[in-house]
Amino acid sequence: MQMSDLRIALFSGNYNMTTDGANRALNRLVEYLLRQGAEVRVYSPTNAEPAFPPTGDLVSLPSFAIPGRSEYRLPMALNGRVRRDLAAFKPNVVHVSSPDVSAHRAVTWARHRRLPVLASVHTRFDTYPRYYNMAWAEPALTALLRRFYRRCDALVTPSESMAQVLRDQRMNYDIGIWSRGVDRTVFNPGRRDPAWRQQLGLADNEVAVGFLGRLVMEKGLDVFSDTIDELRAREIPHRVLVVGEGPAREWFEARLPDAVFAGFQGGADLGRAVASMDVLFNPSITETFGNVTLEAMACGLPVVAAAATGSESLVDDGRSGRLVRPGAIHHFAEALRGYIEDPALRAKHGAAGEARSKDFSWDRINQAVADTYLRLIRQKPKAQP
């Protein structure tokens, strides 16, 4: 079988409703597959004002807005319209990217037809309850995820560190790597813009500690804020530059009244914003890869990150950044202090991170997923006539 013979039904919980690393990666994958001659049909919830135009053919799934997080919609069971569309498309492989209700139904639909199923794991869903005072629910959620992922033929995840977590949790026995790439025409040190910094009130000689990502509690906003409080208490001079939007912005602004909030940035503006930081601070433990970490590295920034899935596979501790035990406020502050007070160290570790970022080519990375589709089709027993 050739790439051009692939017919992929891709199920996504959020293909283009908001902008995040997972749906950007899915859109890039579809673009690559279409460019290679494969046929792809995407099934996802939709909303009236998506964050960006979808790549490929998009079929809207029945869904409802998540209470308190209306920017997201939760897909429901596959209705007759969707099932008829699937039958007419006649996929030879099914790809599910979020363990929601529609994905469960899609896996059942595929298994009844002996079609191979690939699941991509994009985030640490099992860690989310701890950010909403529901840590007691994590074991049950992990068990539900295990039931879902074991019904799939294989999993792919963005980093070896996350793959090992999935192995340890016994989620599946066929787990591969679908890494992430970075667009170096957008993210590079040359995008730094002193004039833009000055417009935001950041002087050339001020060290900007950056936060990049959606402003939601599961990104570690509490740890970030507590660490900045310690820097302030120790009278270590710095500024905070926050790039991103989200429902927790009001909370974050109240916690960091002296920070500069640049809001949502996209495309070349995003590259400019990242390159105009001096160090990225990423305390999140929910990412399976950490696109923001890679983007910062490509811009020549040292990264201070939680020693967790994703960042552990990107940051070389003591060479391109610092990896700190999750939640260790004092150690995060000490790592940031080193970069704030030592411009030569910032430059040295930033250059090492930029060199590492050059290993991530989108086409090579997405070909690994296509190769997995082809392998699963070869391995899957054919349905009896």
From TrEMBL:
Residues 20-184 form the Glycosyltransferase subfamily 4-like N-terminal domain. The keyword Metal-binding does not apply. GO terms for molecular function: glycosyltransferase activity. The keyword DNA damage does not apply. SUPFAM superfamilies: UDP-Glycosyltransferase/glycogen phosphorylase. Keywords: Glycosyltransferase, Transferase. InterPro entries: Glyco_trans_4-like_N, Glycosyltransferase_grp1. Pfam families: Glyco_trans_1_4, Glyco_transf_4. It is an enzyme of class 2 (transferase). Its EC number is 2.4.-.-. This is Glycosyltransferase family 4 protein.
